Amino acid sequence: MDYKIENTKQIIITKPLKLDCGQTIKDFPVAYETFGKLNEKKNNAILIFHALTGDQFVTGNNPITNKEGWWATAVGPGKAVDTNKYFIICANVLGGCMGTYGPKSNDKEKNEPYGLNFPVITIKDMVKAQENLLEHLGIDKLLSVLGGSMGGMQLLQFCASYPEKTFTAVPIASTASHNAQQIALNELARQAIMSDPLWNKGNYHQDKKVPKNGLAVARMAAHITYMSDKGLQEKFGRKLQEKKDYEFTFDADFQIESYLRHQGKVFVERFDANSYLYISRAMDYFDLSKQFKGGLSEAFQNHKAKFLIVSFTSDWLYPTKNSKEIVIALNASGVNVAFAEIKTDRGHDSFLLNEPEFLKTIKGFLDSNFEIFKNEK
Amino acid sequence: MKNEFKIIANLLPAQSRVLDVGCGDGTLIKALINEKDIDARGIELGENNVKECISRGLSVIQGNAETELGQFPDKAFDFVILSQTLQAFYQPENVLEQLLRIGHRVIISIPNFGYWQIRAKLLLTGKMPITKSLPYFWYDTPNLHMCSIKDFYQFCEKKKIKIDRIIGINGEKTSSIYKINLEMKNLLSEVGIFLVS
To answer: One of A144, A149, A297, A311 is an active-site residue; which one?
Structure first.
């Protein structure tokens, strides 16, 4: 890794931010990237919220990995979210490890990374931190907010907290509240990290020995949940990894084993184990209806934004049922909402992949609403 | 836009709130928004239709009206439209009840099984009639509960549903239907449009 994270675009938030846990933070960095150009009327801005292990490098080259950004299939010049037309903003979440304030940040008092001394954060805290960017960039109202998975959770929180700040909203393969299964899967990942002896109660930065094995297992487990049974079977089946027969060992005989090990290995090169704990915790605490006593529909009372909710048929991590709960709540509050369930075998990951029907729907929604927004402003 | 949609559009006041149940590719909704500044939304079962609607900027949700109208609050819309779909539901009576719950008024159009061509076809050929508005064989038709204008009229009377207006369509011709000309119009109309509340 030649790239220095210090080189990333950052703003320092001087305004104190009161976290849900009770602590107040201030003078902390939020790292972000922008793509495309903000037009004169400032009505072509789209804020994208990234998922659990995402970052601000949405498209183009990611300087950390030297690979394409995580949503290059959907965002870029001439893509569904066209950067020739729209101004895209994406910030690394609070608790992240790509330049925004997180457990890897330096605790000035001790001159070492915070580790577990970093306060436990929530989705709402993440959203509050990112909202500062809009003021910094001089944007009163966004054309849209987009986000898949945990990005969708931040998006819903953003809409509930700042109802006037966006014209449209597109939560994809997401939920308004983490259920028992989703919490269970996150707990599995956290336990994998914490049971790695190198994790050392989060205090692993001094001697540079990081809990790679634990984090890799966490990633492997999570990766399975991003794919569907059918998708896995079609891609891997029982195929063996560069061998003719079983080797009667515990090495990776099957392609799927090798694939998961590879996913784990590349992941630990770019991600911080403590960040994984903090961010997955924020997802588990997310329950929008709990914030609004009367239930989820109260969160969107008299909301003026137009919503497009998208789910995927084979997504069992954030299934259509979760998306429909959002649709129902929005309908109950009379909010303008569209909903589409995209047919695909590629599971939760579908939103990151080249799914033509999905991308076409997003493009049509954004482009047609941009025409309306332009005339309104 | 087909004649039926033009008639429905004429029944709707500007800037009202409308739900089109089974909105297809969104032709009617789009026209209502553009021409009358109506807050029009839709629910549609066919996923390709839904994607088409969304791409046109329309607020359409993918879903089954038979089971999913419950999510809308009472009297959420000024008008609810159900165009030539009532006969395709398993339980049209329940659906109608939901429509009347979520809308102040309901516009329902039905392909009229009492139309003379249909009667004649059944009488002369002894087979299930296939016509322009009912182009299916008996075994592949989505239409489970066919009825005539007269049937639906009597159904509304029995259920104490208030009929505000009935319009009969025969090709490009339209006419108002009342109790007094019901028998005749039931014979001469291909489609009947009911405004009920």
So the answer is: A149
Task: Find, in chain A, the residue whose alpha carbon is nearest to that of B73.
Answer: A332
Say yes or no for a CB contact (<8 Å) between A364 and B54: yes
Q: Is A348 one of the catalytic residues?
A: yes
pLDDT digits 0-9 by tens, B50-85? 999 999 999 999 999 999 999 999 999 999 999 999
pLDDT of residue A3: 63
What pLDDT digit, counting tens, does each position of A24-70 carry? 999 999 999 999 999 999 999 999 999 999 999 999 999 988 999 99
Q: How far is B86 from chain A (nearest CA, A)?
A: 22
Inter-chain touch A328–B59, beta carbons under 8 Å: no
Specify whether A228 is catalytic: no
Residue A105 annotated among the catalytic residues of the structure: no
Is A368–B60 a contact, with Cβ atoms under 8 angstroms apart? no
Round to whole Å and give the CA distance between B28 and B21: 11
Measure Cα distances from B124 to B115, B118, B127, B128 in Å.
14, 10, 8, 11
- Fold category of B3-196 in CATH: Rossmann fold (3.40.50)
What ipTM was assigned to the predicted interfaces of this complex? 0.90
**pLDDT for A116-152, tens place per residue?**
999 999 999 999 999 999 999 999 999 999 999 999 9
Which residue from B minimizes the CA distance to A309?
B61
List the single best residue of A339, A343, A375 to mutate versus B (max B Cβ within 10 A).
Answer: A339
pLDDT of residue A294 exceeding 80, the answer is no
What chain A holds in terms of domains, given with CATH numbers, is 5-179+287-376 (3.40.50.1820), 184-279 (1.10.1740.110)
Q: Please report, for chain B, the start and end positions of each structural domain, with discontinuous segments joined by +.
A: 3-196
User: Mind telling me how many Å the CA of B82 is from chain A's nearest CA?
Assistant: 18
